[in-house]
Sequence to fold (880 residues):
Amino acid sequence: MIKYALFLGCNIPARVSQYEDSSRAVLKNLGVELIDIRGFNCCGYPLKNIDQRAYILSSAKNLALAEKQGLNILTLCKCCFGSLKKAEYLLKEDSNLRQDINRALVDSGLKYEGNIAVKHFLSVLYHDVGIDAIKNRLSGSYKELRIAAHYGCHALRPSRITRFDDPVAPTIFDELVEITGATSVDWPQKLECCGAPLTGINDDISINLTKKKVLDAKKSGADYLCTACPFCHLQFDTIQKKVASNNGNSEYLAPVLYSQLLGLCMGIDQETLGINKNKLDISEIKSFIDSATDPHRPT
Amino acid sequence: MVFNVLLYTSLFVFIVGLIYRISTWFSRKIGISSRDISKSERLAAAFKGILEVIFSAKILILIKVFILDVVFQKRILKEDFLRWAMHMLIYTGFMLLLLIHALDKHITASLFSEYYSTLNPFLFLRDFFGMMVIAGLAIAIYRRFILKQPRLKTNSMDYYAIIILVVIMISGFFLEATKITSISDFERMVKDFSDVDEEKDLRALESLWVHEFGVVSPDIKEPFEQKLLEHGREIHETNCASCHSSPKWAFAGYALTKILNPIALSLDRAKSPNILWYIHILACFFGLAYLPFSKMFHIIASPISLLANAVMEKESSHPANIATRQVMELDACTHCGTCSLGCSAATAFDALGNENILPSEKMVSLKSLIAGRKLSTEEIKAVQEGICLCTNCDRCTVVCPVGINLKELWLNVREDLIQKGYPEPMLLSPFSFVRGLNRYDIPADEYYKPVEVAKQAVAGKFDFLIKQSPLVLHGGGVEEFSQLSKDNTFSYCFSCQNCTSICPVVCSFDKPEEALGLLPHQIMRCIGLGLVEMASGASMIWDCLTCYQCQEHCPQNVNVTDLFFELKNLAIKNVERVETR
Fold:
């Protein structure tokens, strides 16, 4: 059985609990064991703009906590993923930094030596569980469902540090979408930013980028966006809805979390997957499932 | 007489204090939510709200919360068994002492016709409950002063609470012990309550009491003849036994007599029982009178907070009631530190040192702020930074043992604070994300203003730089430059402009130079020329999405995005430096 320390971060428990619930259900179904570490704190992502050392210390504390239990970390959030990866990288490269941080961790009875790995949910599914193992657990498959997979910046880049996928032509997320029977559409804005990092700082730019992506995904024929990060999800879900309703506009493209997309094909019930917890309605997605078709039957 | 005067004075102060403290729940303004609501409106809304809850199915929720959270304190148990044991010992022990011991004339005596404080089971129970409180206090002292958890802060109110309880309990046990040993009390009791007057009988009774009841006599000492004791016991049975169980049942006080034995006579001559009695009741009365103004006020406010939060919701509750509840919640906080131990952003406190980052300490500052105490500019800025440096993970709210809705409190107070006009750099980071999510709840002009103020504070003063020709390294930037050159990848830049042309922010504008100050490749060249101040003053760095497209696509492996982070860090440090100058 594969075992990970589940790193939820701050947004998911407070605002995107359906991502946690659906991911737990999906991973349980795939035989991945998740350990909760109570002492985990913020990954430090919002501190990057403020103070580099405060950011690294926050990340390092989490890394040290997981290392103490000998567990690799699984993150659901791509910003947490990027932050933890960068901290891991810098702590490995710079021994002065590592010493300084470890001195600060002494009070908490912790020490970080760099012996664990940090992985994103999608990487775990793709590399550690594997496409075939996932296929074996599917009880239905989508028909004529077109999905625009949104990769998320902080997983892809800087690729030298994150090592998530090919930064220019990534395929992991598309392949994961396609095993559900859905079509992963090709859309020019696929690798662009969702706009979330500027929410609250420069909302005009932020919303402009969100709109551009949504428009592009729609133009490319997508029925839904697909996300695997709470920031991206909140941007496409909560913010898109608020902006649309504030402009008296009902034209939008709803995002579905990848764990929800996959969970439905596994026959996990909508309640567990938190389908109705999304702000933009995605309940129609169920009608694309064709449970009569056996996904393993050669066509 | 003295007792009654003291009792009624302290009771009077207590009641007046109580009324005053509760009235502040309705009069004090908090955050933006209470701005346009008058005191009378809040009072009326509270009455209406309470009645509505009592006469609805919600009363069942109140009953459930009262039993589970107020009486059994399930929320503390969920967090930490030791703390739960501590609080249960102190609170049940003290409540029971209050009922059977302090109010014995009114409660115990009317329930049990044969009640005497010196008879069992009352004699035993008083010590038993007292030892519960002592055990609880020992855990409290262990937790605060020996265990030394890094983020658990102890302030004067915490000291006071522990000290007042320790004084009450210790003086009580010493009073009991000195009364057991007191020969003068023994003689007085014999004179007042018995008909023993013959010298031989008196000697026999005293011998028995020295032998078995812990009395320390100046001239009668062990060993005693068996016959003398038997004679003493006969007298005891007819004169004393109906009101006196063996003091050994008062196990704690009796154990103390063994320690005090060598000095018992001098203690008695110095009238120690009298002095200790005064210390004991004065401490109790002081505790009572000061209760509404101390941390102990949580005895009243915390249950109300638990009950109110169980039936109130942000969407459906009257805004006036939310404002009232939020002021009340400041009194409900016991400064137990559970929130700070679980706080997701607390590591930033370890790195930056501002105590206001910790939720428990924010509460202390907010109490002062909302009570109208004049805070210095530095103090206000520290609170502002603390309250903005929050990831809104809501963990504090989930774990608070007294059910305070901290997340709503932060949002409400934060919005009010950042309108005061002190630039807050935290707003220029993803800490603003949740504020952005809720932006339609905030009036548009108020929403943009604090971010604009912060941007102005970090913005470069370009005018004089641009007039310089040729541009040279500004004196103030030397130290900053050496810090930046640790990542000297900028020196590889040959201005191919890949970074700029791929930047989604730059692409959002028709005239990006006007909107962004400097473009990414220009910023890299700036650093290369040592113009750090100029580079860190460009609004481009704050409008950067951190999507890393520039860095990923740089043919020269310049760490463009990472250098932006460093410039932002520098600009923020600069704001602090300029302000402290």
